């Protein structure tokens, strides 16, 4: 059975026990958007104490603000969030390569040219958090009164540490 088939079967089990749903486009009850990495070891619900409907969780490689901006704008303007937590994590794969490495791998394995894509690797974890917080605070697309804070999630201790 494929991984996608596993997901389909798990969804059937989940749906069969479902109660009343909140409905489409329900604003998150905590008015919170969390921007974090797509790393499969991060379980936002468990790690950050979230229940269904509490927050928007926006994930991408590295949890980077430039890539998450579109979703954050929608989260704020269309669904009323007023706080953003930027959460990067220790041992992130984005710390382990340069753009040229990915371009070469894509060329070698697929014969395709990815040189037009910035994969946005970074070399300093805390600085990447500070950069993302500053990017969002400086964006005219994010409301000025938005609470925006940055954190590093330690995958070993499972603790959040605020980055100032």
- Summing up helix and strand content along with how strands pair, one would put the structural category as alpha/beta
CATH class equals: Alpha Beta
Number of strands: 5
Strand content: 15-25%
> Which H/E pattern describes the elements?
HEHEHEHHEE
Amount of helix? 25-40%
Radius of gyration: 18 Å
If you consult CATH, what is the topology? Answer: Beta-carbonic Anhydrase, Chain A
Task: Output the number of helix runs.
Answer: 5
For this entry, what is the oligomeric state of its chains? single chain
Outline? globular
Distance between the termini: 46 Å
CATH architecture descriptor name: 3-Layer(aba) Sandwich
Residue-averaged pLDDT: 94
Q: CATH homologous superfamily, by name?
A: Carbonic anhydrase
Low-confidence spans: none
Reading side by side through the largest sheet, how are the strands ordered?
A: 2-1-3-4-5
Please outline the major beta sheet: 5 strands, mixed
Number of domains: 1
Short description:
By secondary structure, the chain is α/β, with parallel strands linked by helices. Helices cover 36% and strands 18% of the residues.
Q: What features would you describe in this structure?
A:
It is a single chain. 36% of the residues lie in helices and 18% in strands. It is an alpha/beta fold and 164 residues long. The protein has one domain: Beta-carbonic Anhydrase, Chain A (3-Layer(aba) Sandwich). It has a five-stranded mixed sheet, covered by helices on one side. Helix 2 (44-47) links the parallel strand 1 and strand 2. The radius of gyration is 18 Å and the shape is globular. The protein starts with a helix and ends with a strand. 24% of the residues are buried.
